[in-house]
Design a protein that fits this description.
By secondary structure, the protein is mainly alpha-helical. The protein is 48% helix and 6% strand. It is built from six helices and three strands, in the order αβββααααα. Helix 1 crosses helix 3, helix 1 runs parallel beside helix 6 and helix 3 crosses helix 6.
Length: 170
């Protein structure tokens, strides 16, 4: 089980309201989808995309790691409607793609923050081949996380109410 499996399981445990009763998301069936209240802080995918963009920008400027609720964000990406009109993100697939891109960029900004400020390593004088290969000295200055595909897979499973843990990622 990897970190994305665990994240998916946490998303499936996200508490929602169904007929005024709080239950975990994994108990929802497609037929009940219209009666579910996700109680999310955003109204639509555009609001979530703006939130993620601002979060990413703030993290890029900050020396501290910003907190966010990844499960809530992924549930929002999966179930929030797109804004009806007057928006570039009025198309649901474009809205989801924008949110996933900003989320991936936010994770990248967090990783770079850790490298810059919380894990400051200099190249040791007596480094070996092991240090160079395994510990990756010198540390990269800007790391790019490649997690968008994994997030897309989680969102796809959530959207389809497929709560079985059988990931087959490439």
């Amino acid at each position: 089980m990897d970190v994305y499996d665990i994240l998916f399981l946490k998303c499936s445990e996200y508490e929602v309201l169904l007929n005024e009763k709080q239950i975990p998301l994994w108990m929802i069936k497609k037929e009940n989808a219209l009666n579910v209240n996700f109680d999310l802080p955003w109204n639509n995918l555009q609001d979530l995309a703006i939130y993620l963009y601002e979060l990413k920008r703030e993290q890029q400027k900050s020396k501290d790691l910003l907190k966010c609720n990844l499960e809530e964000i992924l549930v929002g990406i999966s179930y929030l409607p797109s804004k009806k009109s007057g928006s570039l993100l009025a198309n649901e697939s474009i809205g989801i793609d924008a949110c996933l891109s900003y989320l991936s960029e936010f994770i990248t900004a967090r990783i770079n923050c850790i490298y810059r400020y919380h894990y400051p390593m200099t190249v040791p004088v007596n480094k070996s081949l092991f240090d160079e290969v395994i510990l990756k000295f010198p540390q990269k200055k800007d790391v790019k996380a490649k997690n968008k595909h994994d997030f897309e897979y989680i969102v796809s499973k959530l959207k389809n109410y497929d709560f079985k843990l059988q990931f087959k990622r490439n």
